[in-house]
TrEMBL record:
InterPro entries: TMEM86B-like. Its main location: membrane. This is YhhN-like protein. GO terms for molecular function: hydrolase activity. Keywords: Membrane, Transmembrane, Transmembrane helix. The chain crosses the membrane at residues 12-32, 52-70, 77-96, 102-120, 129-150, 156-173, 185-202. The lineage of its organism: Eukaryota, Fungi, Fungi incertae sedis, Zoopagomycota, Kickxellomycotina. The keyword Transmembrane applies. It comes from the Eukaryota. It is found in: Membrane. Belongs to the TMEM86 family. The keyword Transmembrane applies.
Length: 203
């Protein structure tokens, strides 16, 4: 019971801080955003460390590192942030226990990923070769992570993986196509819900 209460408390605190972060986005409170962004992800990760093989925990830690790097307004920091999230997705793929098989679910996911790459292509081609390859590899990784989540048959995990796709798609759109004012709010809302869904399943 004590562990259950502890997990509930951590999740409530995490959800509360996420709400505060979203308010900070609307209010342009940069100090609060910079302070909270990686801290929230680490807080979400904390209950998962009791697992013997903490792939999810490590994935969340690398996500927190990526969060911090993406706050730095420099292209090199973005590349390293992308690399951190790539490692996180590989760790997630390793943690999702599901058989590898063909599925009709592969069709819409592949179409979505291919369409996103096509629409991002004009903006991506302005970057160096390393960034172009990095984006392609990252899209393959997050698509694979989503397949694996679907194959587990776990609804919460599937929702988390799909929301992660939405978050990254909007992030890519903001960076390489057009930065709408609502992008950051949608990116962070879907991102934190995604991470919470993935973490809750593995607590």
């Amino acid at each position: 019971m004590a562990m259950t209460l502890t997990l509930q408390t951590i999740h409530v605190i995490s959800a509360t801080l996420v709400c505060l972060y979203l308010v900070a986005i609307v209010g342009n409170w940069y100090a609060i955003k910079y302070a909270l962004k990686p801290v929230i992800t680490l807080l979400i990760a904390y209950p998962t460390f009791r697992k013997p093989f903490p792939y999810i925990s490590l994935g969340l830690v690398f996500s927190a590192i990526g969060d911090a790097l993406l706050m730095i307004p420099h292209e090199d920091a973005f590349v390293f942030g992308l690399l951190s999230f790539l490692v996180a997705h590989i760790l997630y793929i390793m943690s999702f226990k599901a058989p590898v098989r063909l599925s009709w679910a592969a069709i819409p996911l592949t179409v979505f990923s291919g369409t996103m790459l096509y629409m991002l292509q004009p903006g991506i081609t302005k970057e160096n070769v390393a960034v172009q390859l990095g984006v392609i590899i990252y899209v393959v990784a997050i698509t694979t992570m989503t397949y694996r989540a679907l194959f587990t048959g776990n609804t919460i995990l599937t929702i988390g993986a799909l929301l992660f796709c939405v978050s990254d798609a909007v992030l890519a759109w903001e960076k390489y196509v057009y930065p709408y004012t609502w992008c950051e709010f949608v990116i962070m809302l879907t991102y934190y819900i995604a991470q919470l869904c993935i973490a809750v399943v593995h607590c």
